[in-house]
Amino acid sequence: MVASFATAAEYLRHGKAIAPLTSIAGDFRIFRSYAAWSIFMPIALAGAVGTIVGSWIAFSVDDVGAQLITTELVLTCIGAIAVIGALVTVVAGATAIRQAQTWVPRGD
User: Fold this and answer.
1) Model confidence over 16-74: pLDDT tens digits?
2) Cα 93 to the chain's mean position, in Å?
3) Using CA of residue 32, residue 36, residue 38, residue 40, what is the dihedral sign?
4) How far apart are the first and last CA of the chain?
5) Phi, psi of 106 (to 5 degrees)
6) Relative to the CA of 3, which of 35, 82, 83, 99 has its CA 20 to 30 Å away?
């Protein structure tokens, strides 16, 4: 959760920087695409790899005969991480679109 909020905050900082692209692109789809690649993909990949590696490490410790880490648990963890990543992506994308709608060019 903390990583997803940190990533969303970083995205919003970048969202202000890419606001001028809406005048070039003509629509706000670029924010959704950028959010998917900069928020969802890193969270989903890190979560999936972390869950799989963590399960693999725990298998050597879990050698008492009882199977504590099941396939369902691993898939549930990966699914929960994907849902969290998707929710944060949607919220960050919508917030960046709101910021872009109020963007006006400045003469720096």
Assistant:
1) 777 777 767 777 788 788 888 888 898 889 888 998 888 888 776 655 666 677 788 88
2) 11
3) positive
4) 37
5) -115, 145
6) 99
DSSP letters, the chain, are -HHHHHHHHHHHHHHHHTTTHHHHHSSSHHHHHHHIIIIIHHHHHHHHHHHHHHHHHHHHH--SS---S-HHHHHHHHHHHHHHHHHHHHHHHHHHHHHHHT------
Neighbours of 88 (CB within 10 A): 21
- Written as one letter, the residue type at 86 is A
Tell me which residue has tokens 């070039």.
24
> How many whole angstroms separate alpha carbon 73 and alpha carbon 4?
21
Its sign, for the CA torsion 93, 99, 104, 108, is negative
